[in-house]
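TODO from last week: model Aldo/keto reductase.
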Amino acid sequence: MTALIEDIRRFYLRHGRRGPIPYGIGCAYARDAAVHRAAYGSGIRYFDTSYNYGKGESEEVLGQFVAGTDRRTVFIATKAIVVPVRLSGPEAAALVRASLEASLGRLRTGYIDLYQLHETTSLHQAFGEDGILQMLQAARREGLIRYIGIGTASHEVLGEAAASGAFDSILTYGDYTPLEQSAETLIREAAASGVCVVNGSPLAGRLISRDDPRSLALTEDDHRRRRLPAAVAYRSWCARSGVDPVGFALQFPLGSPDIALNLFGPASLDQLEENLDLLAESFEQQAYDSWLRWYRAWSDGGRSGPKARREEGSDHALS
């Protein structure tokens, strides 16, 4: 077990009758520090944000909460500004250093537990003389950050980062849910190499909610469009099966032993309370078996993902 994985376990959610639960919150949607304070009061200790969530607004709001909290009792993860690919390694390092220093100010803290590169499409600026990684390693020696990670949509980049041994964590999002598990191989291989895997967006970027996913105003270039048919089919299966779509999706990644932590992103106090209550409940194995039958029938006949390797009736950690 790596130091980061062991460390994160101290900050798992403890709420209701279950616990500890490997969950924290993503702060992309919360625009009121009251959400963070309520989350803390309900047992949340891991908070993930980014400069890119509102150009620092999310960090500012989280900083309002951090300023009034015992810093030792929370784990703060944030992400750097997205680095333009045209920059050289040293130029990129300087930009990320400035981003780090600005984040420290907005978050009102002297150090960040996990500092992550964000939406990186290539690692050429990270490696090499005077590149981003050298700068972040220096920042770690200064005590400004404790761990180094990366969160991006590209499985290829995440896989390269995990294999390099230079990153403590990878963050993938929206691709290990009841709708699809395209990140399963990445997650398994990264965990096998000792890298901490963080799974974001278990609700598939709000495709899974109380509302019909077809009501979302998705632009042509929105990456969620390709998952929309699966979201509609999943909603129908839940209705037929009497399964809560949000609760099942939140608990679905708990079945993976390779995911160190999951993140849900409440926008309001009501969403926070609902999601916490759903995580405090449990699903019977038969709910997972029913999902597995639906997924096999709906997708590609059981040729990929967990549907090929797990058998109906096998123990799945949804309870």
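Done. The beta strands are 13-15, 18-21, 23-26, 46-48, 75-79, 112-118, 145-151, 169-173, 196-200, 261-264.
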